[in-house]
């Protein structure tokens, strides 16, 4: 860090004081992580903006590392944030620090300063690219109610009162079973395959009852209240109500309508890119597989749009900038899976490039798309040739309908 930057951050940078953290605890901010020493008290010279503070307790006896936890926080200029470690929970304390205690720490900043590690400024430029569209308001909106992002979400089972052991047959199953018992007393009506409607219905009723019974034996686990990341739900309906079969097909091929519904749930269109960035960071840094699935689904959705590319040029401009940086930081094993198995991310990126080719995207956006495609080919050896031809498994299936009487 040059002297001018250091002086500026000393004056304007934020400070995060973390008291009572045990030695050897894994602690990090943004993309950097360390094992703490005995005299560790926090981080200083934090550039104003959004940051991700994370930590993992480490067992002294075995060295086992607990799943990572953390929180997003937007540091204002000169902000002084104080948190405590809870020894019993081996986690960050939920207790609020009094203003008096915070003021005492500020007054003792000269002695505290030598126990504070400087922010790893070498990662700052990359971090700004990874969080360019995540505002403080969006981070608060997407974070769990309790504010803590965990790699392993805390699960809880329902009480015995809410979920008694055993399961009562549903009314439909009971009706079906009653009708079957009546049917079984009658002469079976012979059909072409010698099966009877009564026997078929009875098997169906038994199958439903068995599934319900097996389900009742499993614990009904669900995330503890306030612990889940509040991602925007991707709509299941891919087309407007009342759509004709032709319109339904169009909306499945071009999912701009679904993207519109997602954007409508945000304060501004670019927040959909902010959510893509937030999900990626919760996966990359927070080790959340749930976040990875959401990131992947958002990438697939954005790559499946045609009309929206022209309507939301700014969104797709930032999509290219974002995913280009994200793929550079992607763990090698995930990249290897994309390359070797040609999974949905690869296929959808290929589809996205083909859409840009067919839709005649122009100007700066086209330049960015071409550069992104070339970089993927050069760095990862991904093959994007033949975009004007359909993949073998993407060609439309022609179904011949038999004429009446055949």
Automatic annotation (TrEMBL):
Residues 170-179 have a biased composition (Polar residues). Signal peptide: none annotated. Residues 231-384 form the AAR2 C-terminal domain. Residues 13-144 form the AAR2 N-terminal domain. Residues 154-245 are annotated as: Disordered. Gene3D superfamilies: 2.60.34.20, Aar2, C-terminal domain-like. Belongs to the AAR2 family. This is Protein AAR2 homolog.
